[in-house]
Design a protein that fits this description.
Layout lengths: L16 E4 L5 E4 L1 E3 L5 E3 L4 H5 L19 E4 L4 E4 L2 E2 H7 L2 H10 L5 H13 L7 H6 L7 H15 L15 H23 L13 H10 L10 H13 L7 H10 L5 H12 L7 H14 L5 H8 L18 H17 L4 H13 L3 H5 L7 H11 L6 H21 L29
Helix pairs in contact: 3-9, 3-18, 4-7, 6-7, 6-11, 7-8, 7-18, 9-14, 9-17, 9-18, 10-11, 10-18, 11-18, 12-15, 12-17, 14-17
The structure holds s-citryldethia Coenzyme A (SDX).
The site of s-citryldethia Coenzyme A has 21 residues, from loops.
Length: 443
Amino acid sequence: MNQQAFPATTTAPDPSARLVLPDGRDVLLPILRGTEGEPAFDITRLREQTGSITFDEGYANTGSCQSNVTYIDGEKGILRYRGYPIEQLAEHSHFVETAYLVIYGELPTRPQRARFSALLTENAHIHERMVYLFESYPRDAHPMALLGAMVNALACYYPHLATNTHFGETDNFDEAAATLISKVRTITAMAYRMSKGLPVIYPKRSLNYCENFLHMMFSDPYEHFECPPVVSRALNLILLLHADHEQNCSTSTVRMVASSGANLFASAASGVCALWGPFHGGANQAVIEMLQAIHDDKDDGTRFVAEAKVGRRRLMGFGHRIYRNYDPRAKIIGKACEELLNELGVKDPLLDIARRLESIALSDPYFVDRKLYPNVDFYSGIILRAIGIPINMFTVMFAIGRMPGWVAHWREVAFAGRPRIYRPRQIYTGPSVRDYLPVDLRE
Ligand code: SDX
């Protein structure tokens, strides 16, 4: 399954940028251009040439790498996985096929897709001794804490798949990738069942990716959970839409860890930890908690929006560092919400509140001026609720969807021909040099 594994770069015949320094020297900065013509000043040699670094807190203006995986145009609300528009993949593809595309760079042929699916099926079980690991955690441990721990622990139970890379020595990559993407379902379902004191349900070879997950979550030893096709389709869509999103906080973390030569499981576990924060993947849980609070306060959204505008609240699920337009994933999920709830005959008052918040915010200058639109997390919780996923597992569902993206970015770093550890610089603002003070002289 080896496709081209390192990013392509195009250096158009651009004139370089000229940086004029205070002492009159000037430095030429080559201009790199991405596939869609997006320009970047190449400052790889800036410190060597000028003794200076750049400063860009939060990396809002800084490209850390070149990558082939995902393209986003935040102004136009464009998202493509390996060149394919997210709208087309959402309509025609499913999570497993899209996971293959994100990881290997091409839509799979029928035999490739069958082999990848078979690898996922073969690797659905987890090592029986991992059950004891689960037992050692409190029943009410947050599922994201468990997921991060268990993903990292895969290196203990499958050491042959956790070889720290010396760049190029990852011939077991296909099996390691399938193991991670498949087992996160089993780990998640096991965490849920054990938190409820329910017997663990093992995966079934006859079920596809999403059906198997829902079977492990909701079946019981006496009755198989029959997954309605509309629910399987909705879960496939949610996972597919989360599969990758270029250099977001958690994916950049995975690349950072991968650049040290750490194995896939350790890198993915770091992604889980980064994703947990409420400003990132934790937002889908925070959105539902926000909508529930607005509902319980009998607020039609007006009061909440007023508080958000003065910084007392944050409209969770709104805003994005890259999208200064509607997040295309939010559009697709918003539509899928209506379809799923209608087909299930479910009326969710939180969806009505979400719709109302959206219409208030999209006509309010505070949000319009700051280009704050619904993002992927604004509606996804409504679908997860309708499927029966507990709210404290919403971010875990985001992580399951994002695994292919983390695997793809780990692969770009691990397969890079020239290893280069990520090591940003800083502007030091602490005390200047000073001598040690004996304890009796300190006040
Ligand atoms: C994800 O990066 C990715 O690709 C992430 C992701 C992925 O797929 O991996 O897309 C997934 O993480 C989506 C984002 C989920 N998070 C939320 O929904 C949390 C709510 N959103 C915000 O916290 C915020 O919008 C961020 C964190 C998403 C983006 O923050 P930025 O780009 O750092 O923007 P900022 O905090 O500097 O805000 C700029 C202004 C500020 O007001 P002023 O200081 O100019 O007066 O906009 C305001 C902010 O106060 N603002 C909001 C707001 N988001 C920004 N005000 C109210 N509600 C909000 N949600």
